[in-house]
Design a protein that fits this description.
This protein is mostly helical and about 425 residues long. It has three domains: about 90 residues, no CATH class; about 160 residues, no CATH class; about 80 residues, no CATH class. Helix content is about 55%, strand content about 5%. The chain has 19 helices and six strands. A two-stranded antiparallel sheet has the order 1-2. Strands 3-4 form a two-stranded antiparallel ribbon. A two-stranded antiparallel ribbon has the order 5-6. A hairpin with a 5-residue loop joins β5 and β6. α4 packs antiparallel against α12, α7 packs across α11 and α13 crosses α14.
């Protein structure tokens, strides 16, 4: 860019803002940006994950552990017990395959939307190769050779308690051998046996095909699970931010949620109005008025490093609306619990303790005066500490040491006891 400017110093700059800004209705049909429809409201332009629909799909799976949405955010990439108590033979179902496929598809779509400059095809190819290697070696978590052997040995017989007798025709388990023997002569068992025998004659040729289809289904499900684990690791930052945002919203009242929405809408309207003013004034006037534009801050939020108000959710998260006063620091007021806890190890508070005659508070004694903000409370604690130290020194000095004829030194009490026993 500098080289181009040296060669063409008088070249005009194209006003891209006029080409891509939102048009007013009187200027024609408004232009809807693709970014406006790219993310849902819960995703907040790619800052958070929106797994609400995936959470509902998970809860509809059979034999799964009931988890809240916050717990699901921590465990959606866990597919082995005890975090997800689903046996391997119960995973090979259409509902579970659809669930893991949709979850992997969403995470992959989120990666493509939030990281357009990354070489994502190369990343996905690497993940596929790693899965192929692990599958051939039998080291895929939950799908290894050990799990396969245990699943094959258990088969349908493990659907019950595992200690009874399994009837393959009726697909039922009996814990009592006598009941099982009586069941073999029943009409229901005989009818099921005939149906099974007739069906087996027609499906004997396709037995190998069905087995290969089940193995292929297991491989596809394992591939989706492996992809979900890898993508969850890559999106760990967004995942933690999502959990914090969900917990923050759960602790907010309806009035606070409405205030946050009003602040977001007001900020968006102010940004659109400022963009329109800059477009009407032209390039030069718009660039000159950037620094002079008044900041819209109706909630009196603290300013961030860029001079703009911090988000309202961050303001509530750190409790910056709560004031904490410290008398030792000269009645200085700290905004938020985090700043208040941090100031006990800062120079202002330590200097205030030294002015009160409290020495040694800058090292090991600092924790003793934590959470104490009153001058009188600090003086009382310091007096108690000094009194305990004096009592300890006095007690140690009052101990009388005695020495026997052989030069052994011992306390006076032990010396008198031994003398009474005639040992000395």
């Amino acid at each position: 860019m500098k080289d181009f400017h040296r060669r063409y110093p008088n070249e005009g700059v194209e006003n891209l803002e006029r080409a891509y800004k939102r048009r007013r209705p009187d200027e024609g049909e408004p232009v809807v940006s693709e970014v406006d429809n790219m993310f849902t409201g819960e995703e907040s332009n790619g800052r958070f994950l929106d797994l609400t629909s995936m959470h509902e799909a998970y809860l509809n799976l059979p034999n799964v552990k009931r988890l809240s949405y916050s717990q699901y955010l921590d465990n959606f990439d866990a597919f082995e017990p005890p975090r997800l108590p689903i046996k391997r033979q119960n995973k090979v179902t259409d509902s579970y395959l659809k669930y893991v496929a949709d979850l992997a598809s969403y995470l992959e779509s989120f990666m493509r939307r939030t990281r357009p400059l990354d070489d994502l095809p190369k990343v996905f190819l690497r993940l596929d190769r790693e899965f192929e290697t692990a599958w051939e070696a039998g080291t895929v978590p939950g799908w290894g050779k050990e799990e396969s052997a245990s699943s094959a040995s258990g088969g349908p017989q493990t659907e019950g308690t595992g200690s009874g007798i399994w009837c393959p025709e009726c697909e039922k388990e009996f814990s009592n051998p006598n009941v099982y023997k009586a069941h073999l002569t029943g009409k229901k068992h005989l009818r099921n046996a005939e149906n099974k025998k007739g069906a087996s004659n027609g499906t004997a040729k396709s037995l190998s095909t069905s087995l290969s289809g089940a193995a292929l289904k297991e491989r596809v499900i394992a591939s989706h699970e492996s992809r979900i684990r890898a993508l969850a690791d890559l999106l760990s930052n967004e995942r933690s931010n999502t959990r914090v945002n969900v917990e923050r919203k759960q602790g907010m009242t309806e009035r606070e949620r409405q205030a946050e929405l009003d602040a977001l809408f007001a900020e968006d309207d102010a940004a659109v109005a400022a963009s329109e003013r800059r477009g009407d004034r032209g390039d030069d006037s718009g660039s000159d008025s950037d620094g002079e534009e008044k900041i819209y801050n109706p909630l009196k939020l603290p300013l961030a490093w860029d001079g703009k108000p911090i988000p309202y959710w961050l303001y509530k998260l750190h409790g910056l609306g709560v004031e904490f006063s410290c008398e030792i620091c000269g009645n200085f007021v700290y905004m938020g619990r985090r700043a208040f806890d941090k100031h006990f190890s800062e120079a202002r508070h330590i200097y205030g303790l030294k002015c009160l005659g409290i020495t040694g508070a800058g090292t090991g004694g600092l924790t003793l005066f934590r959470e104490i903000t009153g001058i009188q409370d600090a003086l009382n604690l310091w007096g108690k500490i000094r009194q305990e130290k004096r009592d300890k020194d006095t007690k140690e000095d009052s101990v009388v040491q005695m020495e026997d004829g052989e030069g052994n030194v011992m306390p006076e009490r032990i010396y008198l006891d031994l003398q009474k026993q005639g040992i000395l």
